[in-house]
């Protein structure tokens, strides 16, 4: 379910609010991976057949089986937690070059932003829109926190990195996701009663 290979360090940072030991997990399946011994190298599966095995409930033992939908929801939650807890503390002040409003000086400090935050900035939408059916209440709460206090910081950093992420897929997802209809109204038009599912997205 992960959208881009992360290093052992990056994956551990993304799991920072949990008790998961990423290094221990990787070491147990080390022969089937590359890059896991170097903490800063992206970890990759040696062969796609191993991934197919882990995600096939009929073949994989229950202790090792990975439910892709559940894993995607966990990744969506971890991305939002990362953004909600760490964006304001790690963002350097972004200053543009005088006379060049879209040019950012090389010493602006963006290179200090950690791998987990970069991943969360880039892929939280991709993980969210793949959640089907009911959305877990904690994820809804994470979304409310993000849009009430962190969205501007997210826009700043993605724009500064030249990786602007369109909100359109997210808005289309939340519009048809009944369990979060009140959240859609809150985000897109606070004047709309939370019971309505069809707020005016063009406002």
Write a concise keyword list for the protein shown above.
203 residues, 49% helix, single chain, mainly alpha
TL;DR?
This protein has 203 residues and is an all-alpha fold. 49% of the residues lie in helices and 2% in strands.
Helices and strands in order:
Layout: H1 8-14, H2 22-28, E1 33-34, E2 44-45, H3 48-54, H4 68-90, H5 115-128, H6 137-160, H7 168-176, H8 181-188
Antiparallel strand pairs: 1-2
Q: What would you note in describing this structure?
A:
The structure is a single chain. By secondary structure, the protein is mainly α. 49% of the residues lie in helices and 2% in strands. It has 8 helices and 2 strands. Strands 1-2 form a two-stranded antiparallel sheet. Helix 4 packs across helix 5 (115-128) and helix 4 packs across helix 6. The protein is globular, with a radius of gyration of 19 Å. The two termini are 34 Å apart.
Specify Rg, calculated over alpha carbons.
19 Å
Cα(first) to Cα(last) distance is 34 Å
The helix-and-strand class reads mainly alpha
**Total strand count, please?**
2
* Oligomeric state of this protein: single chain
Question: Uncertain segments of ≥5 residues (pLDDT<50)?
Answer: 100-108, 192-203
The secondary-structure element order is HHEEHHHHHH
Largest sheet: 2 strands, antiparallel
Shape: globular
Query: What proportion strand?
Result: under 5%
| pLDDT averaged residue by residue | 79
- Which strands sit side by side, in order, in the main sheet? 1-2
Number of helices: 8
């Amino acid at each position: 379910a992960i959208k881009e290979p992360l290093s052992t360090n990056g994956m551990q940072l993304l799991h920072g609010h949990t008790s998961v030991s990423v290094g221990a997990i990787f070491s147990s399946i080390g022969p089937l991976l590359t890059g896991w011994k170097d903490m800063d190298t992206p970890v990759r599966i040696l062969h796609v057949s191993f991934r197919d095995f882990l995600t096939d409930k009929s073949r994989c033992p229950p202790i090792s089986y990975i439910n892709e939908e559940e894993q995607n929801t966990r990744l969506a939650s971890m991305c939002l937690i990362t953004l909600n807890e760490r964006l304001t503390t790690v963002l350097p002040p972004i200053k543009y070059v005088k006379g060049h409003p879209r040019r950012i000086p090389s010493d602006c400090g963006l290179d200090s932003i950690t791998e987990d935050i970069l991943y969360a900035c880039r892929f939280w939408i991709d993980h969210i829109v793949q959640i089907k059916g009911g959305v877990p209440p904690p994820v809804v709460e994470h979304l409310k926190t993000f849009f009430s206090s962190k969205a501007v910081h997210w826009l700043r950093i993605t724009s500064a990195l030249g990786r602007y992420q369109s909100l359109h897929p997210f808005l289309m997802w939340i519009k048809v996701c009944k369990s979060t209809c009140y959240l859609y109204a809150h985000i897109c038009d606070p004047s709309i009663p939370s019971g309505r599912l069809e707020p005016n997205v063009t406002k």
